[in-house]
Amino acid sequence: MQAPAESLRIDRWLYFCRFFKTRSKASAAVTGGHVRLNGERAAPGNRVKVGDRIDLVRERLDYTMTVTRIPARRGPAPEARECFSEDAATAARREAKTAALRQDRLLMPTTAGRPDKRTRRKLRERRGR
Length: 129
Known about the structure:
Helix content: 40-55%
Order of helices and strands: EHHEEEEEHEHH
Structural class: alpha+beta
CATH class: Alpha Beta
Strand content: 15-25%
Mean pLDDT: 90
Strand order of the largest sheet: 3-2-5-6-7
Number of strands: 7
Low-confidence stretches: none
CATH superfamily: RNA-binding S4 domain
Shape: elongated
CATH topology: Structural Genomics Hypothetical 15.5 Kd Protein In mrcA-pckA Intergenic Region, Chain A
Radius of gyration: 19 Å
């Protein structure tokens, strides 16, 4: 069995820790500026080491975490969760934001099936069009 690595490319780390379904999506997020490594904008080839701080924006939700372990493979979710420790304040803000989005979704006008003319008008007004 090979020895655990001391560093890993950031796109592979995000993929191994299950933040993205594919490595190409992880690489695209890093290239697009959604990932910061130790406060600096990251490139897909940047190396992640234990103790590094990663700021990630995924699906308009913020994640701030510290690398605790370098994974050897893309394993099960419990194994992936051991590779980082998340900032409690960021997790609380993310939970509040998802709850607010969920509540907003419940306040939207609904109809059984396809929206009628009146409901479509209300939806357009809510979106500001």
